[in-house]
Backbone:
């Protein structure tokens, strides 16, 4: 007695297998490409920011303070090969919170510019202070200032 | 006389093989990604930079200002001082997460001796790391 065997034909079976393999392959490919692209972008970004940081060169030239006021004017030079902006200033480790003018303003190469701040601490004549200016790319310059 | 031999069809066999291959692939993939994850391979790391840091041996506090110069926000996770992990209660970041182009104030409470230099390491959840040294005053 013949046993009844019902099933899909070889052609249909092959097509189903091909379909499954194609779907899996496409999914893995898209995930891999997305991941690789993100990694590539991140590496490129890091490489760019590091090379730009190496092109940045800043120096504080002079600090102007009138002994009665609570404002400070910092003169700095951009002697690097790239436009910079001063993003933050620290005075003896205290972050300046109030800027009067000059913050995040683009400064061209070879330009001397100023940034005016409200003092975050009390200044005493004769004492030594550490003024740190930091650019948007994270490059800093330390200036020892004695009023 | 024919012996009765019953087995799975070719189609079922292929499907079983595929299931095995997929399962093996998933296992290998998760293992590999786990390994790469330790090196920052699966997540896109951020880029952070130290503005300035100060260590006070009197208050036993390290305060560091860290700037996000990358393309993604950083969620600070751990801090180490000379290789020893600082407990969560003694490690704060404000703001946390640190948004792009912003500065976060990192405060670490640890016993320090004046004049000694300490190596500080902060790590984000995406494995972004920053190591710097600071001399206690």
Residues:
């Amino acid at each position: 007695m013949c046993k009844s065997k019902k099933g899909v034909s070889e052609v249909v079976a092959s097509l189903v297998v091909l379909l499954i393999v194609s779907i899996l392959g496409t999914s893995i490919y898209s995930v891999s490409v997305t991941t690789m692209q993100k990694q590539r972008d991140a590496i490129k970004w890091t490489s760019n920011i590091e090379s730009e940081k190496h092109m940045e060169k800043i120096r504080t030239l002079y600090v102007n303070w009138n002994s009665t006021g609570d404002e400070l004017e910092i003169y700095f030079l951009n002697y690097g090969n790239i436009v910079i902006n001063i993003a933050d200033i620290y005075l003896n480790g205290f972050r300046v919170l109030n800027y009067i003018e000059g913050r995040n303003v683009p400064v061209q190469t070879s330009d001397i510019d100023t940034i005016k701040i409200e003092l975050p601490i009390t200044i005493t004549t004769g004492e030594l202070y550490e003024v740190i200016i930091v650019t948007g790319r994270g490059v800093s310059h330390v200036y020892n200032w004695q009023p | 006389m024919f012996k009765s031999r019953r087995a799975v069809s070719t189609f079922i066999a292929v499907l079983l093989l595929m299931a095995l291959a997929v399962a093996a692939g998933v296992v290998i993939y998760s293992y590999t990604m786990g390994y790469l994850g330790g090196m920052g391979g699966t997540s896109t790391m951020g880029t952070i930079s130290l503005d300035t840091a100060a260590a006070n041996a009197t208050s036993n506090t390290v305060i560091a200002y860290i700037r996000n110069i990358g393309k993604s926000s950083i969620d600070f996770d751990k801090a180490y001082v000379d290789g020893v992990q600082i407990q969560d209660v003694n490690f704060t970041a404000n703001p946390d997460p640190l948004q792009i182009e912003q500065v976060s104030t990192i405060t670490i409470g640890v016993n320090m001796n004046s004049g000694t230099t300490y190596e500080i390491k902060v790590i984000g959840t995406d494995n972004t790391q920053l190591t710097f040294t600071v001399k206690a005053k």
In short: The two ends of chain A are 111 Å apart (CA to CA). Chain A has a mean pLDDT of 90.
